[in-house]
Amino acid sequence: MSGTLVLVRHGQSEWNLKNLFTGWRDVDLTDQGRAEARAAGERIRQLGLKFDIVFTSALQRAQRTASIILDELGQPDAETMRDLALNERDYGELSGLNKDDARKKWGEEQVHIWRRSYDVPPPGGESLRDTGARVWPYYLHVIQPHVLRGETVLVAAHGNSLRALIMALDGLTPEQVVRLELATGVPVVYRLNADSTVAAKDILAAQ
Predict the structure, then answer these.
(1) Which long-range CB contacts under 8 A does 198-205 form with residues at least 24 apart?
(2) Most exposed residue of 18, 25, 159, 182, measured as fewest CB within 10 angstroms of its CB?
(3) CA separation (Å) from 152 to 5, 34, 58, 149, 161?
(4) Which residues are marked as active site?
(5) According to the model, what pLDDT value does residue 83 have?
(6) Closest C-alpha to 135, from 165, 174, 172, 167
(7) Run of H or E including 167
(8) Helices (H), ranges, 78-142
(9) How far apart are CA 124 and CA 55, in angstroms?
(10) What is the 3-state secondary structure (H, E, C) of 35-53?
(11) pTM of the complete model
């Protein structure tokens, strides 16, 4: 068995609360989101994990989540790398719109296709496949080598960037991944074999 990879979707953001398409817009966590991040850190601490390196996106809601988790673990100075490769999916023209208002403008069916299809992007934005096209190389070339050296690695990112990563790790089909839901602030712990396959997976849901 090789290293440990922990994935955490950021805690609730201000625009999650307002039901807005966020994408690359740089909004902060709500009080609830900060509490979710603290709870994630506590559950990780209960496993006895310490992180050798942390990866997060270029957006503050993911960075803040990582920082709160590290504070809970007594590791505020852990090495942290930030990269837009881990950013949330770019929602293009939908960014900043209320989801109900978007449905009124484009229709329920069209908005559902943009939100839940694998390869149909919203106007000016990215599909889940497009998101994966930047997440997967970054994982393979930058993150995975640390795990395969036996390190314990945290990735604090976003719903869609992590769905794309989990698609690769779990071997999901496009049909399966569009049904995958990731709760905010819930750690997903992978233990990898030396050949990069998954040895074990554990979801640290709230009790």
Answers:
(1) 198/169, 198/170, 199/1, 199/2, 201/170, 204/40, 204/43, 204/44, 204/47
(2) 18
(3) 6, 23, 21, 9, 20
(4) 10, 88
(5) 98
(6) 165
(7) helix 159-170
(8) 99-106, 108-116, 128-138
(9) 27
(10) HHHHHHHHHHHHCCCCCCE
(11) 0.95
Backbone angles phi, psi at 100, to 5 degrees: -70, -40
Please give the Cα distance from 191 to 48 (Å, whole number).
Answer: 14
b/e code 32-51 from CB counts within 10 Å (16+ = b):
ebbebbbbbbebbeeeeeeb
**pLDDT on residue 17:** 86
pLDDT per position as a tens digit, 88-137: 999 999 999 999 999 999 999 999 999 889 999 999 999 999 999 999 99
pLDDT digits (tens, 9 = 90+) for 127-139: 999 999 999 999 9
Letter for the amino acid at 138?
Answer: Y
Domains in the chain, CATH or no CATH each: 4-90+127-203 (3.40.50.1240)
